[in-house]
């Protein structure tokens, strides 16, 4: 089969490029003529399903699955279609993949899951879908950070609220002993700190070096949190 210039650079088989572009009609013609294209990988180990997910094309994904394209395989970099669809925020594609029975808790290199990508990129509708379909709200990556850690680092209060609503563990620490509250303090996210404190975050859990959140907090942060801090707050910088 002839190759064409890819929207992402380099060359890929035409069925992959059509999937990326969302050209449903031409892709259907290609797959009807050559059904093996549904299971053919490009130079990066991606299937039609990966490119449909990257483009957020749920109708293309449905067509690919109908033609026998695997919906849960990793590409050469460890991405599954669900991870890609979650990262780009395509709720319709995510919903279709979940209904197809893909592994909602699969992890990429680094231990990152679809939920972690959705939270990191503020795809909260997708995150809600994943959680409703069995995503582990406390799933941890290779440095033992959960989605709550990611939301705290960016100060995303809506994401924090969603994760807490679904039972996220507030005081779990990463490999370096940092809780979500610690990270929110480190990045000076006042609103995130207040939200976590309202859900019983412990402000006195130290990291592996023995530093407590209140010891790394800036004066600005301490003032923003106000009376919610213990009265013995120490050396804000």
User: CATH-wise, what's the superfamily of the largest domain?
Assistant: Ankyrin repeat-containing domain
Domain module count: 2
* Low-pLDDT windows of residues: 1-8, 232-237
Which structural class matches the secondary elements?
mainly alpha
InterPro entries: Ankyrin_rpt, Ankyrin_rpt-contain_sf
Keywords: ANK repeat, Repeat
Structure description:
- This protein has 14 helices and 2 strands, in the order E-E-H-H-H-H-H-H-H-H-H-H-H-H-H-H.
- The chain is mainly α and 237 residues long.
- The protein has 2 domains: 1-136, Ankyrin repeat-containing domain (Serine Threonine Protein Phosphatase 5, Tetratricopeptide repeat, Alpha Horseshoe); 143-237, Serine Threonine Protein Phosphatase 5, Tetratricopeptide repeat, CATH 1.25.40.20.
- The chain is elongated.
Name the descriptors.
disordered N terminus, 2 domains, 14 helices, 237 residues, mainly alpha, two-stranded antiparallel ribbon, Serine Threonine Protein Phosphatase 5, Tetratricopeptide repeat, single chain, disordered C terminus, 2 strands
């Amino acid at each position: 089969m002839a190759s064409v210039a890819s929207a992402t650079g380099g060359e890929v088989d035409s069925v992959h490029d059509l999937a990326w572009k969302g050209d449903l009609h031409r892709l259907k013609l290609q797959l009807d003529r050559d059904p093996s294209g549904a299971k053919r990988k490009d130079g990066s180990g991606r299937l039609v399903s990966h490119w449909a997910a990257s483009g957020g094309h749920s109708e293309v994904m449905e067509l690919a699955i109908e033609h026998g394209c695997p919906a849960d395989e990793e590409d050469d970099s460890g991405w599954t279609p669900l991870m890609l669809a979650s990262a780009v925020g395509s709720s319709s594609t995510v919903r279709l993949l979940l209904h197809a029975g893909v592994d909602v808790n699969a992890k990429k290199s680094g231990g990152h899951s679809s939920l972690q990508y959705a939270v990191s990129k503020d795809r909260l509708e997708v995150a809600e879908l994943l959680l409703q379909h069995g995503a582990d709200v406390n799933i941890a990556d290779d440095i033992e950070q959960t989605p709550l850690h990611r939301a705290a680092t960016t100060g995303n209060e809506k994401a924090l609220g969603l994760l807490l609503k679904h039972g996220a563990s507030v005081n779990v620490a990463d490999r370096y002993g940092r809780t979500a509250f610690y990270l929110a303090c480190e990045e000076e996210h006042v609103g995130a700190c207040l939200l976590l404190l309202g859900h019983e975050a412990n402000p006195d859990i130290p990291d592996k070096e023995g530093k407590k959140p209140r010891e790394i907090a800036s004066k600005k942060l301490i003032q923003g949190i106000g009376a919610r801090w213990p009265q013995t707050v120490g050396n804000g910088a």
